[in-house]
């Protein structure tokens, strides 16, 4: 379905940013650093990371909202990086995105009915009997057909999410990038949205890239997980094994229950101005925060290495519990 | 630093309403009673619209709040703070009441340095300026900010969310309030920072003896932080008691369903998440029975037309017709 290889996204600091970054005026931030991932049809891949880890940027580069610096993104056996604009528009119809801010991603001046027809007009898909079509779509996402006449500000958080889901599925895509689709929702509404996504997947075989910082949620609804730290995938593999026996120290920190989580160093470093991370490009990205780091971790960047259970870990000294070696 | 005596906060039978869009009176808090002892952390959980935010704004009584408080008392040091004038209330906020907001990015003034804001917050204390700066530095160190003197010179946009939330807690530390209200204090933060903030709030309680009220829709955060838990539904506290008792043996069906929705509590491999069908009802008049009756899978006849009794146990209460044990 989709295969990403050695993807790199560099955010070039421009104008004032460049001027103010005195210590290193040519500093460019690697937001995505050699990321490789695969996602099969009908599969759900959970992309986990903290804010600033690059998870949203990765999603946006797949769907063409973010310029890619180098690497390859193959979608349904076609290379997207460097693809001709006209052809890209056609391929683009096969993917859609559920945005993080459900109300902000909907035009405030259009009714829900108009918003649902928008993808069709953008992609020149003729819709016969548009009112019935909108009703059908609303019913598929569990909304009352009367919602078609509402404006986004009149919707509850859960309803706005469902409208976002309806827009995403309207053209029967092969891949949906869901960026924090349950952020800010009540737990029971979160369950409803997740169950809806699940039902739609079973009916249509759509693949999801599920972007979230909620590892507990992701471990229960995803087939595979990819853990992102500062633009690098530190661990990827079947959700159950990543969650049950994390092999990367960062994953282990995320998985640990709140009470037992290894305490952060009791004195916290002051982050650099503007939140830019300056890490020795030769060192492991996690080495400065890792409680298991040895000298090798500060000197060389670990390359991804496969483990017996189908996992891939970027660590010199992966934590191999009994579950993994057995 | 001024030494202030800790105090218990006693919320008694609070009744609050709003005027809805259609001009009708909407009941937001119905007979809410809750005691927070000094040195105690009490969590309030519930879905959106259950009255959590109304409870917070009623305790703060910020000017311009459209709420109509039509019954009840909030007693602190023998005084009902609901009877205080707005200027007396202003004295109370920043001395006896402090707040940690959900979004640390907008809670601080963007054009003043952190140091200036930490000094300003001490304006009620009769100590020299130098001592205020020293106290500010000390507070930053107590929230585990390294290089505190450098941070004093920074402005909010130069800092991360976790650092800013630490600054907000440092501000509250300078005030040593009788009651600290934390409204979704970790919702905007990453998981690892969240752990740190939870730890800081617990240290805060130990240092100051303040009573702390934490409002959150994240049950797991409350579980890691609180001593007691109050579950709200449709403007009412429907169950309240010791944290572990409530979590391990919930008595009200709503509490049980809310806990079940937490993905952390699901069995591995369960792809279908439990939810609570329906929505929190908006109440325009006191219901004849239990407000949860339409969504309750265990409702019996009397639930619809009899107000549920308050079942008391030594350490907790629940408003439910089901006898103990039945709700499990």
Number of helices of chain B: 12
- Helical percentage of chain A: 25-40%
Average pLDDT metric of chain B: 89
Tally of individual domains of chain A: 1
* Residue fraction in strands of chain B: 15-25%
Overview of the structural elements:
The complex is a heterodimer of chains A (326) and B (328). In chain A, the strands form 2 sheets. In chain A, strands 6-7-8-3-9-10-12-11 form an 8-stranded mixed β-sheet, with helices on both faces. In chain A, 32% of the residues lie in helices and 20% in strands. By secondary structure, chain A is of the alpha/beta class. Chain A is built from 12 helices and 12 strands. Chain A has a single domain (2-19, 26-257, 279-313), classed as Rossmann fold. The longest helix of chain A has 18 residues, at 187-204. Chain A has helices spanning 15-20, 55-62, 85-92, 112-122, 130-140, 157-169, 187-204, 215-221, 239-244, 249-255, 295-299, 322-325; strands at residues 2-11, 29-39, 44-48, 70-75, 78-79, 95-98, 175-179, 207-212, 224-229, 232-238, 305-306, 312-313. Chain B has a domain at 100-176. Chain B starts with 8 loop residues before the first strand and ends in a 9-residue tail after the last strand. Chain B has 328 residues and is an alpha/beta fold. In chain B, the strands form 2 sheets. Chain B has an 8-stranded mixed β-sheet, with helices on both faces. Chain B has a 4-stranded antiparallel β-sheet with strand order 2-1-4-5, covered by helices on one side. In chain B, helix 5 crosses helix 7. Chains A and B meet through helix 7, helix 8 and helix 9 of A and helix 7, helix 8 and helix 9 of B.
